[in-house]
Amino acid sequence: MALTARAPLLALAAVLVVFAVPAHGITAGYVAAALLLVVVVDLILACSARELALSRDGATSTRLGEAAEIGLVIANPTGRQFRGWVRDAWAPSATAEPRLHRVELRPGARRRLVTTLHPTRRGHRPAAAVTVRSAGPLGVAARQRSRQVPWSVQVLPPFTSRKFLPEKLARLRELDGAVVAPVRGQGTEFDSLRDYVGGDDPRSIDWRASARRVDIAVRTWRPERDRQLLLVLDTGRTSAARVGDAPRLDAAIDAALLLTAVARRAGDRVALLAHDRSLRAVVDAGRAGDSLATVVRAVAPVHPQLVETDMRAVVNQALARLRRRALVVLFTSIEPAVVLEGLLPAMSPLIRRHVVVVANVADPAVEEMRRNRSDAASVYAAAAAEAADNDRRAMTWALRRRGVVVSEAAPDVFASHVVDTYLDLKAAGRL
């Protein structure tokens, strides 16, 4: 049961009656009884909130930063008119609007209420309870009941790096020899012969084939296909650090999605792990790695954990899933504690068998601190930035000395830089 805004006004009117007609307390008793009677009658005549039929429809997924519309269908199978309010509650991070619907529904009628979600976090966003408040014809009291109407919206990563996809696919076609380019498509597998055009590398001329033809013939090459990539997302404490406007993990996920899209178009198989002290997400290349959508849905609910990543467990997970030589791209932070205590002691078995790339999101704020030396405080900040940058360069050098390829760039071009590293390795025949 609930009282509406009219109830206090009615009570105030009753108080005025009591003061206007004093009769040794008898008037107060009569007025109180009348007020209670009005509330009881209004409750009895109100439509039952329990008997209303509720169901949902609408979107089941959306991207972070985009809106999703969810419909709540309310039907009145009773013989009384429904007047009241419906509150469709969602998790706070779903940012549902409007919060409250004013509804009037005749007997046997139906109405669809639309709630728009503007999610602020990735992952599953379940619906909370639907609260129905059915007011009586007098509008003084109402029946209220909360009911569960299950629904969930999966909030996917925004995949902002897809703007780089046409450029990367064009370069991939160049590597495959599918377009005429100023340089020959590189690779280690012979593809076909074609006529010589200006700008071709003279070393690609096939003199034997040219002797049998009128025109000069050149060999075209294509990179090897059906290679395996393993993308490893470090979801430990360092992935929670904000670089720009988002956590470091978000930039890593965005780069992983772009790399998956390009690698699948190149004919390579992609697997993925998200790990800190335990396995958070996995996509197996043999079963589900054929679809970018599979990777998107796997990483959507993954969030940073404030724990230290167990790099030995990460390496063991990677080795258990790789049966032949592969490219392993580890998205993590290049910090002294991470590299010296985690990466270097654990990565030796992985480096011996596979090509390893460590991808790190550079923080633009560090570069800004280095340049700003306008006052004493900024000079100290610049010195701290220089020290941090020196430590990062030392860790980068230590990784490269072990044979690790390091890819590092600012968040806005990080995904593009990681894919360029993959294409460079593919062009050099290192996969």
Write up what this structure looks like.
There is one protein chain. With 431 residues, this protein is an alpha+beta fold. The protein has three domains: 1-156, Sandwich (Immunoglobulin-like), CATH 2.60.40.10; 177-222, no CATH class; 228-427, Rossmann fold. Helix content is 36%, strand content 28%. The strands form five sheets. Strands 1, 3, 5, 7, 9, 10 and 11 form a seven-stranded mixed β-sheet that branches. Strands 18-17-14-19-20-21 form a six-stranded mixed β-sheet, sandwiched between helices. The relative contact order is 0.10.
Number of helices: 12
Beta-strand content estimate: 25-35%
Helix- and strand-based class?
Answer: alpha+beta
Please count the beta strands (DSSP E, at least 2 residues each): 21
Weakly predicted, low-confidence segments: 178-188
* CATH C-level of the largest domain: Alpha Beta
Rg, Å, rounded: 33 Å
- Strand count, sense and closure of the main sheet? 7 strands, mixed
Tally of individual domains: 3
CATH superfamily of the largest domain: von Willebrand factor, type A domain
Q: Per CATH, what is the topology of the largest domain?
A: Rossmann fold
So what's the overall shape? elongated
* CATH architectural name of the largest domain: 3-Layer(aba) Sandwich
Fraction of residues in H or I helices = 25-40%
Mean of all residue-level pLDDT scores: 85
- State the end-to-end CA separation: 69 Å
In short, what is this structure?
With 431 residues, the protein is an alpha+beta fold.
Can you lay out the helices and strands and say which pair or pack?
Layout: E1 2-3, H1 6-20, H2 26-45, E2 53-58, E3 61-63, E4 68-75, E5 82-90, E6 96-97, E7 101-105, E8 110-117, E9 123-135, E10 141-147, E11 152-156, H3 165-175, E12 189-195, H4 207-211, E13 217-222, E14 228-234, E15 242-243, E16 246-247, H5 248-265, E17 269-275, E18 279-283, H6 292-299, H7 311-321, E19 327-331, H8 336-346, H9 348-353, E20 355-361, H10 364-371, H11 376-401, E21 405-409, H12 411-427
Parallel strand pairs: 3-11, 14-17, 14-19, 19-20, 20-21
Antiparallel strand pairs: 1-10, 2-4, 4-8, 5-7, 5-9, 6-8, 9-10, 9-11, 12-13, 15-16, 17-18
